[in-house]
């Protein structure tokens, strides 16, 4: 690693950074598998100067980070360090009451419909337009109106107030998966329908609307068989790593 790069990384360790453009955050130091994305304007911290090294060139390739809004950890390519800028003001979670959140739910739903209207495909780790994964779409939709959610489906399930499926209202979250863990999430629209981003193999390879019923098409039936429960967003996520 060059002295200039080492100095740059060390300087970043002390300050909260703002993303100047959409950035990919990876699940390992090799930066070969997407974990999440940081949209333009999001805050992150570089938490370690441990970097992976390219075996051919000997050049360090990544740094460890976490996203301030949702505490999500990952790895950022060293080549993207120039796309960070020191934050003038540290991130502070916007805290809304349950009543305030409820008033914003029509706009959350509207965001998902606009996202569906764009050409898109399912992207594991996707949280910025046009390509999302399931929980990335939920997080982006709520964030668009200032409501912070955790990143992954199982985290969103644990964060929301559990409700009976019979009590579902538009804007609630619907969770799918196994008896052990939620692996998929959608946004309830009313009339027994929900919108979600589903994969190519078992879904629609992008954003679509399905029904919570055994009477739907093959995709709807497949997800219905994995239905775990539902949750209501009644608060904003407050970061722990502050």
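^ Assign residues to that structure.
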């Amino acid at each position: 690693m060059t002295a200039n790069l080492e100095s740059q990384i060390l300087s970043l360790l002390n300050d909260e950074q703002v993303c100047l453009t959409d950035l990919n955050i990876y699940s390992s130091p090799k930066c070969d598998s997407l974990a999440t994305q940081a949209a333009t304007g999001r805050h992150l911290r570089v938490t370690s100067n441990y970097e992976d090294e390219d075996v051919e060139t000997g050049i360090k390739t990544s740094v460890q980070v976490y996203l301030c809004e949702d505490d999500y950890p990952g790895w950022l390519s060293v080549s993207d360090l120039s796309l960070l800028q020191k934050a003038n003001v540290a991130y502070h979670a916007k805290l809304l009451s349950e009543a305030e959140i409820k008033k914003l739910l029509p706009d959350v739903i509207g965001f998902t419909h606009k996202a569906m209207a764009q050409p898109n495909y399912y992207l594991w780790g996707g949280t910025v337009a046009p390509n999302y994964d399931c929980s990335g779409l939920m997080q982006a939709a709520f964030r668009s109106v200032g409501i912070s959610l955790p990143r992954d489906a199982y985290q969103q399930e644990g964060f929301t107030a559990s409700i009976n499926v019979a009590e579902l209202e538009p804007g609630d979250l619907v969770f799918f998966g196994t008896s052990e863990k939620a692996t998929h999430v959608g946004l309830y629209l009313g009339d027994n329908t929900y919108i979600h981003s589903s994969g190519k193999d078992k879904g629609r390879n992008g954003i679509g609307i399905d029904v919570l019923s055994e009477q739907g098409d093959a995709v709807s039936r497949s997800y219905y068989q994995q239905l775990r429960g539902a949750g209501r967003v009644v608060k904003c996520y407050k970061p722990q790593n502050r």
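The longest helix spans residues 98-117.
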